[in-house]
Specification:
There is one protein chain. With 295 residues, this protein is an alpha+beta fold. The protein has 2 domains: 113 residues, 2,3-Dihydroxybiphenyl 1,2-Dioxygenase, domain 1, CATH 3.10.180; 150 residues, 2,3-Dihydroxybiphenyl 1,2-Dioxygenase, domain 1 (Roll). 19% of the residues lie in helices and 36% in strands. Strands 9, 10, 11, 12, 13, 14, 15, 16, 17 and 18 form a 10-stranded mixed β-sheet that branches. Bound molecules: ligand LE7NWQGK and fe (ii) ion. This is VOC domain-containing protein.
């Protein structure tokens, strides 16, 4: 069993790096940690970065999760290979670029590129946010899969993820710690990143951010609303490069592991996705082919 400790990052291709970085800083409110000619790293909390842009084609390159140490990484490699999953060990240069000590990469059964990393660098200095959006942390990431049940079988048989709730066969919300979900899988035609989430400090932050985005003509995809699963108040909006961001406040924590029973919500019920009965749709950022596995 591979023990995921936490989410680490999203790596995204950027056809227009300057615009992608400008939006992430000036609109989303992230801190620009480092910028080179063709790359940029942004953070929301102590992690060195939670979002990296690499100049090139638009699309998600990979998502990263932390494991505890090199033994856990070696165990993960063995476990994945025994399950027939091709694993590629990261290079020293790749690790430096990711600001981790070591890593490996693999594809989930649908072609989402996932990286497992050890020792993601922490930056203890105070955050210098691009604007006061109220961000407290990188909250969760959501992958697309054409078969959410099969994705659940993959994540729950090889990894320590536990399902917190189902939204029919449309979404599976998975936890790796007391937070209701750090990984979600949504039904989509092809692999990709549905969205990345940032927790904010208050309900007021969600609503202030909503006004801020509206005034600037940013495309709001869904919200403000309230998810009955995590009870979080949410706001999804579209950024450059096809990347959907979510702010949310008030995510449920599951503190009694033994007592929690995953619930099943019917997505066709009017308040199964938004308790305030709003309507919206979240468009995904497609996975870029990395050549990790021939398909
Ligand atoms: C929009 C989807 C279908 C949804 O309802 C997601 C639920 C939650 C939540 O309960 O907080 C998310 O934020 C999520 O999975 O992204
Ligand atoms: Fe979300």
């Amino acid at each position: 069993m591979i023990h995921l400790q936490d989410i680490a990052y999203v790596r995204s291709g950027a056809a227009d790096l300057a615009t992608a970085v400008g939006f992430a800083v000036d609109v989303v409110g992230l801190e620009l940690v480092e910028r080179t000619g063709d790359r940029a790293w942004l953070r929301a909390d102590e992690r060195h970065h939670c979002l990296a842009f690499v100049e090139g084609r638009s699309g998600v390159l990979s998502t990263g999760f932390t494991v505890s140490d090199e033994n856990a990484l070696a165990d993960a490699e063995r476990t994945l290979e025994a399950a027939g999953v091709k694993v590629v060990r990261g290079s020293a240069a790749g690790a430096r670029e990711r600001h981790v000590r070591d890593y490996l990469a693999f594809e989930d059964p649908f072609g989402n590129v996932v990286e497992l990393v050890t020792d993601q660098v922490r930056l203890p200095r105070p955050l210098a946010f691009g604007r006061p959006a109220g961000i407290t942390e990188f909250g969760h990431l959501c992958l697309d899969a054409p078969d959410v049940r099969a994705a659940y079988r993959f994540w729950s048989s090889l990894f320590n993820t536990r399902v917190s709730d189902w939204i029919g066969d449309r979404a599976c919300l998975l936890r790796i710690d007391p937070v209701h979900h750090k990984l979600a899988v949504f039904k989509g035609d092809r692999p990709g990143l549905c969205h990345m989430n940032f927790q904010v400090a208050s309900l007021d932050d969600v609503m202030r951010n909503w006004r801020f985005l509206e005034e600037r003509g940013v495309e709001i995809e869904f919200g403000p609303g309230r998810h009955p699963q995590s009870t979080a108040v949410f706001l999804y909006f579209k950024g450059p490069e096809g990347l959907t961001y979510e702010y949310s406040y008030g995510v449920r924590r599951i503190t009694d592991e033994q007592a929690w029973r995953p619930r099943y919500f019917d997505p066709d019920e009017p308040d199964a996705i938004d308790m305030w009965r709003g309507k919206g749709s979240i468009s995904s950022q497609p996975q870029l082919s990395t050549g990790l596995v021939e398909r």
